[in-house]
Design goal:
Radius of gyration: 17 Å
Strand order of the largest sheet: 2-1-3-4
Low-confidence stretches: none
Strand content: 5-15%
Oligomer: single chain
CATH class of the largest domain: Mainly Alpha
Shape: globular
Distance between the termini: 27 Å
CATH topology of the largest domain: Glutathione S-transferase Yfyf (Class Pi), Chain A, domain 2
Helix content: 40-55%
Order of helices and strands: EHEHEEHHHHHHH
Number of helices: 9
Length: about 210
């Protein structure tokens, strides 16, 4: 498999974690987003979205959108599972995943932040305030979901799931933007538990081949 990725892309980070949890080997294909490499013809020809991650399977099929890729990996390589066996558990894990992937990330990804500054002439301070606001709103909701359920090591139970694959990259980004992460005891405990695992450590941005010094 080939994974087209950018080291700071949280969506790519999610997929890297999932691949590592599954023990799947892949070739890392760097696409430097801040240099606009995603818009170059050779990459744009591979995906209509011109975004990472893009996973190319051993058979040559190309898959986009991190959540769809993770579910594909879970269906084709079911051990260890990233979704629970029961329908209610799967719904909860998907909901937690979507708090990050659908509520926080779309408002704060690179192209949105660039649009705020370049097209809407928003100041850097205002842009950072925008980022921190939506992180705060989303992670408070995430904490509420965790607090409403029995305590567990990970987002759902005693093994990492797709929700953990989504949460960890979001915390990394929040820390990079100096967001206030106080008042999130359950969320941060899960993050710390995840970062004790090799699969998460090997997927983090600083471990990527294209990581900048």
């Amino acid at each position: 498999m080939k994974l087209y990725s950018y080291f700071r892309s949280s969506a790519s980070f999610r997929v890297r974690i999932a691949l590592n949890l599954k023990g799947l080997a892949y070739e890392y294909m760097p696409v430097h987003l801040t240099k606009g490499e995603q818009k170059k013809p050779e990459f744009a020809a591979l995906t209509a979205e011109q975004l990472v991650p893009l996973l190319e399977t051993d058979q040559g099929q190309r898959l986009t959108q991190s959540m769809a890729i993770i579910e594909y990996l879970d269906e084709t390589h079911p051990e260890p599972p990233l979704l629970p066996a029961d329908s209610l558990g799967r719904a909860r894990v998907r909901a937690l995943s979507q708090v990050v992937a659908c509520e926080i990330h779309p408002l704060n990804n690179l192209r949105v932040l660039k649009y705020l500054v370049r097209d809407l002439q928003v100041s850097d301070d205002a842009k950072n305030g925008w980022y921190k606001h939506w992180v705060h709103v989303g992670l408070e909701a995430f904490e509420g979901h965790l607090a409403a359920a029995p305590n567990s090591t990970y987002c759902h139970g005693e093994a990492p799931t797709m929700a953990d694959c989504c949460l960890v990259p979001q915390i990394f980004n929040a820390q990079r933007f100096d967001c206030d992460l106080s008042g999130l005891p359950r969320t941060m405990a899960v993050f710390e538990a995840c970062m004790k695992l090799e699969a998460f450590q090997k997927a983090q941005p600083s471990a990527c081949p294209d990581a900048e010094a």
